[in-house]
Amino acid sequence: MNPSAESPRPVLTDRAPAPIGPYSQAIAWDRLLFTAGQVALLPDGSFGGGSAGEQTRQALHNLAKILEAGGSSLGGVLKTTIFLQNMDDFAEVNGVYAEFFGQSAPARSTVQVARLPKDALVEIEAIAVVDRRQ
Fold this sequence. Notes:
six-stranded mixed beta sheet; CATH 3.30.1330.40; single chain
């Protein structure tokens, strides 16, 4: 670790759902921001979405709020990982994902998993660069 770099610091905002376990919404370190996976929870803790597309939209809204609180934005995202309960939802998730990232989409991995927190259909995490001007 670079001794001149700042210490990792947790990021927490009430504009996204609180963690449902012993973890941070994100960790900022130097110029990078690492988010926890986001599902379709609303900031009040209720579940916000039925279809995989609706859940993707809410997860990305949550991600955007956490990135903002950490000094970044969706435009600063370098890499995402999408966890799907069913790979048959891939096209629907891609459609919503493209609305948020468009032509400047970051690198991405998508994997099918057996189960997600709260029995969500979609979970998304990101690594982003922090804008030092903020």
